[in-house]
Design brief:
The complex is a heterodimer.
Chain A (H helix, E strand, L loop, with lengths): L6 H9 L6 H33 L3 H7 L4 H34 L5 H13 L2 H12 L6 H6 L8 H12 L2 H13 L2 H8 L4 H30 L2 H7 L9 H10 L3 H29 L1
Chain B lengths: L11 H28 L3 H8 L2 H34 L5 H7 L2 H4 L2 H12 L6 H4 L10 H26 L2 H9 L4 H30 L2 H7 L9 H10 L3 H37 L1
Helix pairs in contact in B: 1-13, 3-8, 3-10, 6-8, 6-11, 8-10, 8-11, 9-10, 10-13, 12-13
The chains are: A mainly alpha, B mainly alpha.
Chain lengths: 286, 278
């Protein structure tokens, strides 16, 4: 309905008692103030601090921190890990969502619970389990040593731990979306003789693409930002096995606040970008 | 009933097979390794490790701070969700989008940023210091970090439930002479409560396992400001794999219990909404 307030709207406003009394507007302003105050202290102030500290010695020092070799190595490692983890988890997410949303089978809700498991598990546990499997004293530790393969305190361990933590995100976005969209169009396509892959790419994918985009972006943000799990398996070898969040910690503990907050500011920008894409996706869906 | 209902769509075997295989390889087998490692310990050893005074102190902090944080989140999360659903004000959409920030922001970043803000010379810390309130490097700092981490879970659970509250009922109650508090208690709260409980549990579950944001602000003193996940990391660094596995087993069991309660709460919440719609 375009234009000014319609007759129904005016009637509705007139019929609602007490909406515009003094007390209700006082309550309204108290609620808004409390909300903004809480968010300002807990969220806005820390976000502002990241950028203000990173730039406290000027733009030149800010950019100087990215010329550091170890910082560059950390950025490169983070990108590499994300480049392996995100596509893998995306393929898993699509496969799991297809099986769960398109078919009725026994044990389905149990399977969904298992997929959600990494969200409830402490990131430290996610790292710990791989140390117990592949670490020096782990189940496969001796065998790996004999064959000169290192997983823990090396890149493969970081990839595995990150995969564990970000495992559910794509699937969680897609399952409810695909369940809500139903099977009718896919069934029509199959009946008309389309193959499975053709049906997926031409019928399903166009319908779910925005949900998929958000799932992938969220998975990527969590993968690049994971700290706890990666910290357990990484061994913290500077320039070799430190991802960006771990590098933030190392620089912070060396009291190199400009460097530490500079790297943190990149991660913050990534988070902001993720939220912008999320908002765009939500607008597209409406 | 057979294993699955018939369907003409293809790919069931392939997609289910691939997802269960991948799920087992990445999640289930590693978790089983943790359980088996714990099982190789004798019963006596296990009890000794998990009831060690330092471990007990860490549970007290992890669970205590998480309950406090989830409670704070329930109160402020409800206020924020109500404000975002019911009121129009400039910047509402941006604030709404920023609620997810703690979820998208790497925990290490929130950790160092909160520490900077709440340290004694920080923006907020310097105003609290004259009152003798120290936030950074105390248990209060742990609560602050966990509150930030849990906030989106409560707000996002409660928002749809508040939108569900039937305004007609509120208006009817008001014309019949009900006060604001009565309306809140008798009409708003029953609709929102299951969602609020879900949000509380989600925030609590996330807080108990949280590591990155806490270790920067906590100070990490044994017996005082040491959370359980940190104790696991310390045991690993000392190559005490069994000790780490035992504490990990305790936390994993907790996670299962939390996940189960979340599922039950969500089922309850759905039933309430369906029943209300009838």
């Amino acid at each position: 309905m375009a234009g000014g307030p319609s007759k129904e709207m005016l009637a509705e406003i007139a019929s609602r008692p007490g909406r515009d009394t003094v007390i209700s507007s006082v309550v309204k302003y108290i609620f808004i103030l409390l909300s903004l105050g809480f968010l300002a202290a807990l969220l806005f102030a820390p976000l502002a601090t990241v950028f203000i500290t990173a730039l406290s010695k000027g733009w030149e020092m800010y950019f100087e921190s990215f010329k550091d070799e170890d910082t560059l190595a950390a950025i490169k490692l983070t990108l590499t890990v994300a480049a392996i983890v995100v596509p893998t988890n995306t393929i898993f997410g699509i496969a799991a969502a297809w099986a769960i949303a398109k078919f009725e089978f026994r044990g389905k809700s149990f399977l969904i619970t298992l997929i959600d498991l990494p969200i409830a598990v402490s990131p430290v546990i996610s790292g710990l389990v791989y140390v117990l499997l592949f670490g020096a004293q782990g189940w496969f530790g001796l065998w790996l040593q004999e064959h000169d393969i290192s997983i823990i305190f090396a890149v493969p361990g970081i990839v595995l731990a990150t995969m564990f933590v970000t495992f559910p995100y794509v699937a969680r976005e897609l399952i409810p979306l695909m369940q809500q969209l139903g099977n009718d169009e896919e069934e029509a396509a199959i009946t008309l003789g389309a193959g499975g892959l053709m049906t997926f790419f031409h019928v399903t994918l166009p319908k779910i693409r925005w949900g998929l985009v958000y799932g992938v972006i969220l998975c990527n943000a969590r993968a690049m930002g994971e700290f706890g799990a990666v910290s357990v398996v990484s061994g913290h070898v500077r320039g070799l096995t430190t991802t960006m969040p771990l590098h933030v910690e190392i620089l912070y503990n060396e009291y190199n606040f400009v460097g530490s907050f500079a790297v943190a500011s990149l991660l913050t920008l990534l988070a902001v970008l993720t939220l912008i894409i999320k908002s765009l996706v939500e607008m597209k869906r409406k | 009933m057979s294993f699955r209902q018939p369907s003409i769509l293809p790919g069931f075997g392939l997609t289910l097979g691939f997802s269960t295989f991948f799920l087992s390889a990445i999640i289930l087998v590693p978790l089983a390794a943790l359980v088996m490692k714990t099982a190789t310990m004798g019963w006596g050893d296990f009890i000794r490790v998990v009831t060690d005074p330092r471990a007990l102190a860490s549970y007290r902090l992890s669970f205590g701070a998480s309950i406090l944080a989830a409670t704070l989140n329930s109160v402020f999360g409800f206020i924020i969700a109500w404000t975002l659903v019911r009121y129009e004000f400039p910047g509402r959409k941006i604030i709404d989008a920023l609620i997810d920030m703690p979820f998208a922001l790497p925990t290490a970043v929130s950790g160092i940023a909160l520490t900077a803000v709440f340290a004694e010379n920080g923006w907020i810390g310097q105003h609290l210091a004259p009152f003798g309130i120290k936030v950074a490097y105390t248990w209060i700092g742990v609560v602050v970090a966990l509150t930030l981490i849990g906030l989106p879970f409560v707000v996002r659970s409660v928002q749809p439930a508040i939108a569900e509250v039937q305004r007609d009922l509120e208006d009817a109650a008001e014309t019949l002479g009900a006060g604001r508090f009565t309306i809140f208690r008798r009409i708003v709260l029953p609709t929102v409560f299951p969602a609020l409980a879900t949000g509380f549990t989600l925030a609590f579950a996330r807080a108990v396992g949280e590591y990155g944001s806490v270790i920067f602000i906590a100070g990490n003193l044994p017996m005082r400001t040491e959370i359980t996940p940190l104790l696991i990391v310390i045991k690993l660094e000392q190559f005490d794999y069994k000790g780490a596995a035992a504490l990990g087993f305790i936390m994993l069991t907790m996670s299962f219990v939390m996940l189960l309660s979340i599922n039950l709460l969500q089922a309850w919440s759905r039933r309430r909404i369906v029943a209300g719609a009838r």
